[in-house]
Amino acid sequence: MCSSPRRVAPGDVIRSRIRSSPMPPARKPDQSAPRTVSPTGVGYDGPKDGRDPRGQAGDKLTTPNGVRLPDTDHSLKAGPRGPVLLEDFHLREKIMHFDHERIPERVVHARGAGAHGVFTANGAGASVTRAAVLAEKGLETPVFVRFSTVLGSRGSADTVRDTRGFATKFYTKEGTWDLVGNNMPVFFIQDAIKFPDIIHAGKPHPDREIPQAQSAHDTFWDFVTLHTEATHHTIWNMSDRGIPRSYRTMEGFGVHTFRLVNEKRETVLVKFHWKPKLGVHSLTWEEAQIAAGVDPDFHRRDLYDAIENGAFPEWELGIQVFPDTPEETFEGIDLLDPTKIVPEELAPVQPIGTLVLNANPTNFFAETEQVAFHTGHLVPGIEGTNDPLLQGRNFSYLDTQLTRLAGPNFTQIPINRPHAPVNDNTRDGFHQQAVHTGQAPYTPNSVDAGVPFPSDWSEGGYVQVPRHVEGEVGRTAPASFDDHFSQPALFYKSLTSVEQQHVIDAYTFELGKCYEQAIKERALTVLARIDADLCAQVATGLGLPVPKKIKVAKSRSESPALRQIRPTPFPIEGRIVGVVAGPGADLAGIATLRKALEAEGALLRVIAPHGGQLVKGTTVEIVERTFATGRSIEFDAIVVADGAPKDGDFRALVMLQEAFRHLKAVGAWGDGVAVLKTAGIDPTAPGVLTGKKANAKLAAATVAALGMHRAWDRTPLVRASMV
Ligand code: HDE
Questions:
Q1: What pTM, to 2 d.p., does this model score?
Q2: Which of 57, 385, 506, 668 has the most neighbouring CB atoms within 10 Å?
Q3: C-alpha–C-alpha distance, residues 384 and 394, integer Å
Q4: CATH for 576-716, options being 3.40.50.880, 3.40.50.1370, 3.40.50.720, 3.10.310.10
Q5: Nearest 10 degrees: Cα torsion 292, 294, 299, 305
Q6: Which Pfam family, any one, appears in the UniProt record (predicted)?
Q7: Per the annotation, does 146 bind a ligand?
């Protein structure tokens, strides 16, 4: 028999370890004792925003079955040195659960970030729809929004060139409505049947599984040049829209045309638009590339931090309204073609409500990962149309959730639960959470007193507006779907020259990463139909001849609404200014600058040679970034303080040079100007802000520069340094 001395029980070790460490943080409000909640809402007394208030625990650690545990750090062994016993039910249960923690990632849009918020209707929608969420003035509807990239896997970088998803779940009192949109108003294809093909082409090559989250490869360009309906979406991707500065600075679009129905059952056709309060802003390509390495969570972090700091992102929801004619066209534009926009100059976007995102998720998996959107989640007053892309989506979203969320009961997951009463007759299935009562889950019945009863239109039932349908069966498309080039041409000519240059650079980069000569040559024949100069410049970049005898497509007159560079300033909430400082820095000046920025909702972060604090008299500044941890990409402007290290640590100089190259405001006060000069920055260049002191004038100039997003007039200077 083993006679080893009595060992300290593992539980004692844990208790003493906790006692010797600093005070544990206070419990979060949602970490009250677990409660049992019926998934269909019976007995639900938590917040009404769809979040289950269950935190992870009360006081005592238990197994999933509620058995209290003395120790979760040591396997049950025969003696201290082994072997582990099969009898250890806790070990097996803990590892089993861990083994199954991952669920399949979304087949597209795998990488995302979400937030809770509220949508408030302004009442203007009442004339066109009976849906209370859009019609009832002042009605506040809770929402959950998930933003995403399309091509990358869950762990891929945020700032890649790609389309962004903008999916909104409205928990309306009439049932759940999902508006599953993107940050671009058109799509690559006109028929859902091609979706597997475009995604196979965009995803990594099947042999080596590279490149990750990129469109700059042969198969993508092969597809979009063979299926030229993709030309319009592709040029949006090659524009600055493909690399947003933030989810907060993106427009959103429903893409398809929808049908709205009012109380009198009159219909109109509409397109949905989300307009960001902060304006539409993007990264520069180099900035996006650096961020993908330095901070792959750039957009996720930005969204989380902004909400945490009270800079709640805001969008206006607007609709373009078209008469519901049998042709389903407007000014000659086919409203069922998802590769077409209707220029805002032809049909203005009319605001019908405001979205504010005001709370971060409590648990990423439970909310952002498990949220399940579906284009078929509609409420009375909002209908789809015959757009063949939308019709295919109506099948796909339900189908994909079956695999991803392992069964048909995903509307019972807290984030997906409707906030309207649910009285359906669905039963059983994997992960059934409800304990249904009654004996007759069918309608009508005479056993359970006949309930639940159907509702007609007057009682708020979802009754489709009658529509006439006829036609010959066939795999066909309308002739108007053959126009693939007039709108890409319209888009390109509507941009400012700076934005056009970015488009040229993007095509040159992406096609330059392709290996197949034939694909590059075919791509040039597509560009030749959009714009001759665009084609010529990309051809030069690729070292290929311009294709001959191809005419540019005819297009409408320019649509200035398509530009994102505008002459007027935008709000600067959540923008970040880095101040390069050091032990001798003018802390009073930093305080002045901070006050002015915070008054506009922007933030100031001190960057110094090393961490800790900067102290001068009674003034103390916390160092938030060091020369080692900071990089230009996380700042919208960088200013050098008087008294910052003058010799120019190369890391600080690189920060300044990058910011200058990315057309951000850079500045300095006092002898900080010398640091700018060491970095090779001309203090008289556009967007370089200098002063003797960090006074109100310098602060106002910084705020104004941030409002313009970038010093666009510096572009020629920066490009002059490129061969
Ligand atoms: Fe999607 N799409 N999609 N899509 N989509 C998915 O559904 C699909 C399309 C969009 O944050 C999947 O739950 C087909 C257009 C967003 O959870 C899947 C077609 C638009 C999201 C699917 C399209 C979108 C998805 C994958 C061609 C903009 C992320 C996981 C007809 C209007 C939602 C999932 C989130 C996700 C299918 C085209 C937007 C496979 C078949 C057009 C924002 O069901």
A1: 0.92
A2: 668
A3: 9
A4: 3.40.50.880
A5: 180
A6: Catalase-rel
A7: yes
